Amino acid sequence: MTDTAESTSTTDEVMIVTDAAREVVFDIRAKEDDGDALGLRVEVVGSTGVDYTYDLSLEPLAEAAEDDHLHEAAGLTVIIPANSVDAMRGSTLDLPAIAGQGGLVIRNPNRPSALGDLGDLELTGDAANKVQILLSERINPALAAHGGYAELVRVEDDKAYVTMGGGCQGCAMSAATLREGITKAILDAIPEISEVLDTTDHGLGENPYYS
Predict the structure, then answer these.
(1) Number of neighbouring beta carbons within 10 Å of residue 96
(2) Domains of the chain
(3) Would you state the pLDDT for residue 92?
(4) What is the DSSP secondary structure assignment for residue 151, as one 8-state letter?
(5) How far is C-alpha 200 from the chain's CA centre?
(6) Cβ atoms of residues 182 and 153 within 8 Å
(7) What does the alpha-carbon distance between residue 139 and residue 131 come to, in Å, rounded to a whole number?
(8) Phi (first) and psi of residue 20, to 5 degrees
């Protein structure tokens, strides 16, 4: 441990570690051989629903990759792989809110795309045809995992009207999926569209996947 509790940054701080969480890490690290030479590595390894999943481990600082993000504060160096930095920026490592619950939690304001990686896709034809291609080739395969789908109702001027059905209709997450996932995908990929409007009747349908 360092002699001071003041932060010493090698780069900007991506993830804040609370004092309580740091003590938990120190307790674990103290049981390791040459613990002072170990840093806490935190990596995004996937996603579950609307949250990222993480891998936390103690790693020798000497083995950190050149492009790893390192930040030292109060005797603990946090190592974040370069490909996890953007997804973790602004997060906090802390104890669970429920007293007595073990482990550590990461509170992260960032969320993975509800539709996953849409990848590169060649869109041709008019705006309506481009939306149809995007829905059928990228968006609906992702929604199918939840038993749902999205359909284009119509395109008027620069507005696309979209409805959701199947497991998405009546789903508590469907409005967020449309707003944060489908809308962003359409607006990013099709410049002719400036607004996506949800025509789904969320009061109808019964969804077995979410409550």
Answers:
(1) 11
(2) 7-107 (2.60.300.12), 127-198 (3.30.300.130)
(3) 93
(4) E
(5) 25
(6) no
(7) 10
(8) -65, -40
Q: Dihedral angle at the C-alpha atoms of 44, 47, 50, 51, nearest 10 degrees? A: -40
> Rounded mean pLDDT of 134-160?
84
pLDDT, residue 176, reads: 59
Three-state DSSP string of 109-149:
CCCCCCCCCCCCCCCCCCHHHHHHHHHHHHHHHHHHHHCEE
Q: Among positive and negative, which fits the CA dihedral 78, 80, 86, 87?
A: negative
Whether 78 shows a pLDDT value over 90: the answer reads yes
In whole numbers, what is the pLDDT of the chain averaged over residues?
A: 80
Q: What are the backbone angles phi and psi of residue 106, rounded to the nearest 5°?
A: -110, 120
Rounded CA gap, 12 and 72, in Å? Answer: 10
At 192 the three-state DSSP class reads: coil
